[in-house]
Structure formats: structure tokens, C-alpha cells
Amino acid sequence: MNEPVKTLHLVIHGRVQGVWYRDSMRREAEKLGVNGWVRNRNDGTVGAMVQGEATAVDELVRWAQRGPQLAEVSRVVIEPGSGSYAGFEMRGTV
User: Which of 28, 46, 77, 92 is most deeply packed, by most CB within 10 A?
Assistant: First the structure.
């Protein structure tokens, strides 16, 4: 029996640009089987839409709160997300 699909929008604050955050999140999402996207935002944060089985999404959120080795995450704003995604992609800055 599959878990229900969970979709969340994340905004990651801190030193999260220029530290391989997006590519690291993409690799982690692919490892967990989570779909969606990640991109830098003009305000210096990183935004992401993550979708998948609830336990996998929750694990990716826990990862997002740490980030890759060089990142310094100060907080992650988590809101309900929407849409339907296949795979996980890095998108350009908005």
C-alpha cells in the first residue's frame, strides 16, 4: 500500500547560495524518490517544491534544515504546495 502523496513548498534561509545547495538537494531528492524542483531566489534564499510519499518528503525536509556541508541554514519556512511533478530539477533564479 502506497503512502499518500505530500507536496510542500520550502523557502530555505541562511547561507544557502553558492554552497552547492541546489545540486545537493537534487541528489538527495533523487535518492529518496522525491519529485519537484529547487531554485535560487533573488532575495538570497532557496525555494523548493517537494512531492512524494510523506516519509520521503519529511526526510528531505529534515535534510533541507541542515543542507550540504558548506551551507548554514538559519530556518526553513514550510507551506503546503501544489502541482504535479515528475523527477526533480534545478531551475533558474527567480
Answer: 46
pLDDT confidence of 4, banded at 50, 70, 90? confident
- Determine which one of 39, 40, 41, 75 is catalytic: 40
27 catalytic, yes or no? no
H-type alpha helices, 1-94: 21-32, 54-64
CATH class of 5-37+44-79: alpha beta
Task: Map out the domains of the chain as residue ranges.
Answer: 5-37+44-79
40 a catalytic residue? yes
**47 and 11 in contact (C-beta within 8 Å)?**
yes
